[in-house]
Design goal:
Layout lengths: L1 E6 L3 H16 L3 E6 L4 H6 L3 E4 L4 H17 L4 H29 L5 E5 L3 H11 L3 E5 L12 H26 L8 H7 L3 E4 L7 H7 L21 H9 L5 E4 L8 H15 L3 E4 L14 E4 L4 H4 L5 E4 L3 H10 L3 E5 L4 H11 L3 E5 L5 H11 L2 H11 L5 H21 L1
Parallel strand pairs: 1-2, 1-4, 2-3, 4-5, 5-6, 7-8, 7-10, 8-9, 10-11, 11-12
Helix pairs in contact: 1-16, 3-4, 4-5, 4-6, 5-6, 10-14
Length: 416
C-alpha cells in the first residue's frame, strides 16, 4: 500500500511520522513524507523519501516565539502584537497554499494520507478531494473534550481558529471544487470517520482515555512515537556524567533562546548555588563562544533515551517528545515553556502527574530556577517520577501499535 505522511514543524513534530513511516516501510509499504525544507535531510537520513512542504520551520518557530514572548512580557504593546500577528497570518497563508499544491501531487493514488497536528486543514481537504481515508497523529490532546479541556471552551477555540484561517481554507476548497465548509476542520475530520491516533501515553490522561473509549476505536492511545536515535555526543556525555555526580539536563530543542549568554549564566549560577552539575543541550540555540564553568557541559544534541536516566532531573521547553522521554526515564521534570501551544499543556500535565513543575521561560530568573529545582528534586517527586515510568509504553511498542492501526484502517477503507 502507499502511505503519504505530511508532518510540518521541527524535529519534535516530524519524528513521530518518521518513526511510524520507517516501520511501515520495513513492512513493505510505499512510504513518502512531506516535511519542511529544513527537515528533508533528517527524514532522508532515516531512510524515507521526502519532499519539501511549506516554508522552513525556523521562520515559523521564530514568529510564534516572538509573538508569545511579546504577549506575556509586553502585552500593552498592541501595535507590536498586531504586526507580529499579521506576519504570522501571511506566513500561514503562504504555507497553506504551497502545502495544498504539494499534497495534491503526492497524495494521488495514495491508500492513506496521514497528517500531523500542524496544518491538518489542507491535508483534510486533499483527502476529501481524492476520497481517500485520513489519519492524524496527535502528540497532545487537541480535540474538545470534557476532561483535559472544558468541552465548550474547546469548541469555541476550534471555531475561532477556523474563522481566523477561513479565507485560505475556503480558497483551497474552491480551487479543488469542494463544497464550502460550514464548520472547523477538526469537526469535518471527525465526521468523515478519520482515525485520530493519540501519540502520547494513556497514563498521562486517564480520564480522557476513558471518555474517548466511546469513539469506536477512532481515537486510540499508542504512546509517544520516537526513534531514540544515537548522536555523536552520547559517548562523550556518558563519560562526563560518569566522572562526577548526576547532572541536571537543560535543553530547549528547536526553541532558540533570546540570549544564550544570559541563559548560560542563569543556569550556571543556579546549579552552582545548589551544588549541581548542568548538562546543556544547545539544540537550535547558539551557545558557541559563550563562557561557562567547569560544572557546566554544553553539547549540540544527545539521545534522550540514553542520557536522561543518568540525570537527576530534566529541564526543557515542554515539547511532547522531550516530555515523554523524561517520563520514560523516571526523572523529575521542570517545563519552562516558550510558546502558546502544547508546551503549556505539558507543563500543566507534569504538575498534575506530580512528577514536576512548569512555568513560562520568560518569567524565569536565577532565584525562581533555584526554587523550582529544589521543588522537583524533593524525594516525593523523584519517587513519583519512577512510579510513572513503569506505566509508560515502550517506544517500540508505540511505533508497532501505530503502524498496525494505520495498516488496518487503510485496508478497511480499501475493501469498503
Amino acid at each position: 500500500m502507499r502511505f503519504v505522511l505530511a508532518s510540518y514543524g521541527s524535529r519534535g513534530d516530524v519524528e513521530p511520522g518518521v518513526a511510524v513511516g520507517r516501520e511501515l516501510l520495513r513492512r513493505g509499504h510505499d512510504v513518502r513524507m512531506a516535511v519542511a525544507p529544513d527537515m528533508v535531510g533528517f527524514v532522508e537520513a532515516a531512510g524515507l523519501a521526502a519532499v519539501a512542504y511549506g516554508h522552513e520551520t525556523r521562520r515559523w518557530v521564530d514568529g510564534q516565539r516572538d509573538f508569545s514572548t511579546c504577549l506575556f512580557r509586553h502585552f500593552w504593546r498592541i501595535q507590536d502584537l498586531i504586526s507580529l500577528g499579521r506576519e504570522a497570518l501571511e506566513l500561514f497563508t503562504q504555507n497553506w497554499e504551497e502545502m495544498s499544491a504539494t499534497l495534491m501531487s503526492l497524495a494521488q493514488e495514495a491508500d492513506l494520507l496521514v497528517t500531523a497536528l500542524a496544518f491538518e486543514g489542507p491535508a483534510a481537504n486533499v483527502a476529501e478531494y481524492y476520497d481517500i481515508p485520513l489519519a492524524t497523529l496527535h502528540f497532545f490532546p487537541a480535540r474538545a473534550n470534557g476532561q483535559a479541556l472544558v468541552r465548550s471552551v474547546g469548541r469555541v477555540v476550534e471555531w475561532l481558529v477556523w474563522r481566523l484561517w477561513k479565507k485560505v481554507d475556503d480558497s483551497q476548497r474552491r480551487e479543488l471544487g469542494l463544497p464550502k465548509a460550514t464548520g472547523p476542520w477538526p469537526r469535518r475530520i471527525a465526521e468523515r470517520g478519520s482515525l485520530e491516533i493519540q501519540a502520547y501515553d494513556e497514563v498521562c490522561f486517564p480520564e480522557l482515555a476513558a471518555e474517548w473509549a466511546n469513539w469506536d476505536g477512532r481515537r486510540p492511545f499508542v504512546g509517544a512515537l520516537t526513534m531514540e536515535l544515537p548522536t555523536d555526543a552520547d559517548e562523550e556525555v556518558a563519560s562526563w556524567i560518569a566522572a562526577g555526580t548526576p547532572p541536571i539536563y537543560f535543553g530547549f530543542g528547536s526553541m532558540p533562546v533570546e540570549s544564550p549568554a544570559d541563559t548560560i549564566a542563569m543556569i550556571s549560577a543556579a546549579c552552582a548555588q545548589l551544588g549541581e552539575r548542568a548538562l546543556i543541550c544547545a539544540g537550535w540555540s547558539d551557545f558557541r563562544d559563550v563562557p561557562h564553568s567547569e560544572h557546566v557541559k554544553v553539547v549540540g544534541t544527545v539521545n534522550h533515551a540514553a542520557i536522561f536516566p543518568a540525570c537527576r532531573a530534566v529541564v526543557h521547553h515542554g515539547g511532547a517528545g522531550t516530555t515523554a522521554a523524561g517520563l520514560r526515564a523516571g526523572v523529575p521534570t521542570l517545563v519552562l515553556s516558550m510558546m502558546l501551544s502544547d508546551q503549556l499543556n505539558w507543563a500543566a500535565r507534569v504538575k498534575q502527574l506530580k512528577v514536576g513543575f512548569g512555568q513560562r521561560f520568560s518569567r524565569t530568573t536565577q532565584e525562581s530556577l533555584v526554587a523550582d529545582l529544589c521543588t522537583i528534586l524533593a524525594p516525593h517527586y523523584v519517587a513519583r517520577a519512577r512510579e510513572i515510568a513503569t506505566q509508560m509504553t515502550k517506544p517500540a511498542e508505540s511505533v508497532a501499535a501505530a503502524a498496525d492501526l494505520l495498516e488496518d484502517f487503510a485496508r478497511l477503507r480499501r475493501v469498503g
